[in-house]
Write a structure and sequence with these properties.
The protein has 274 residues and is of the alpha/beta class. It contains 10 helices and 7 strands. The chain has one domain: Rossmann fold, CATH 3.40.50.
Length: 274
């Protein structure tokens, strides 16, 4: 079986921003958190991802109702809602591929700057071959968020593109951060980048867009059709030549995005089997 990798960002790609939704579920003003707490750190030259992680830890420590715990993140994750069609999307694409290209196997991945404890505990997580996201250190009897443990930002995301390419996934990728740096000839990559499809929405996805596009893979920028303030950002990715297309984040059976994903699978499958 020849593999094709379909790789997704998480926040605003498969669902709305999960950190904002988490804050709102805890009765915290998400807009105030981003504008006052995180932007204050951004102005002090913090990287945006550890900035939001650190700000969340500080908020947790001061919270009158008690700190934010691992269990709270897990419980929130299990209740999360997704963009239309997301929960059935992987099986839909697998079924399509099995019927048209029985020699092709699809592998699905998530690379996210969001909170790993949330992403891994959603109901869609079992549909993915592997998931990488930013992580917290948890301390105390109640496992309270205490410190950023792993930060996945901008170019950090491309590391996991290389891990997928080289087959460093699952348990093989855990506790072995330097494995990805071992030299492997491109012709020996398990999944070459021209056999990848990447779907994202924001600036943290730009390095992945650029890397996969450079190797003639397929890249799509998605946007929330209900958030007109986000449309321009997605369109700019297209104008800058970073993506193959710009589409609404609708993963239902007959949507433009699903049709484009199917056409991309067809195109890559033909290259793999010619």
């Amino acid at each position: 079986m020849q593999p094709i990798a379909i790789i997704f960002d998480f926040d605003d790609t498969l669902t709305h921003d999960s950190t904002s939704l988490l804050l709102e579920s805890l009765g915290i003003d998400a807009d105030k958190f981003w504008k006052e707490e995180v932007q204050l750190l951004d102005k002090q030259d913090w990287d945006p991802i550890p900035a939001y992680q650190y700000a969340l830890v500080q908020l947790s420590k001061k919270r009158e109702e008690g700190p934010i715990t691992k269990k709270m993140l897990q419980e929130f994750a299990r209740k999360m809602k997704f963009h239309p069609g997301v929960t059935k999307m992987t099986e839909l694409l697998q079924s399509y591929t099995r019927s048209k290209h029985p020699e092709i196997n699809l592998e699905f991945y998530i690379i996210s700057s969001g909170i790993g404890e949330i992403v891994r505990n959603t109901r869609i997580a079992p549909n993915f071959t592997d998931i990488w996201a930013s992580e917290f250190l948890y301390e105390g009897e109640n496992e309270e968020i205490a410190f950023p443990k792993k930060v996945i930002s901008f170019t950090d995301k491309t590391r996991y593109i290389f891990q997928i390419s080289k087959g460093i996934i699952g348990e093989k990728s855990r506790n072995n951060p330097f494995e990805v740096n071992k030299r492997v000839n491109y012709k020996d990559f398990r999944i070459k980048m021209e056999h990848m499809i990447f779907i994202g929405d924001g600036y943290t996805d730009v390095p992945c867009f650029s890397l996969i596009k450079r190797y003639n893979g397929v890249t799509f920028a998605v946007y929330d059709k209900h958030r007109q303030d986000r449309w321009g950002k997605a369109w700019n990715f297209m104008m800058d030549g970073r993506v193959s297309g710009v589409l609404s984040a609708d993963y239902t059976k007959d949507s433009d995005l699903t049709r484009n994903l199917m056409m991309a699978i067809d195109s890559i499958a033909m290259k793999l089997t010619e």
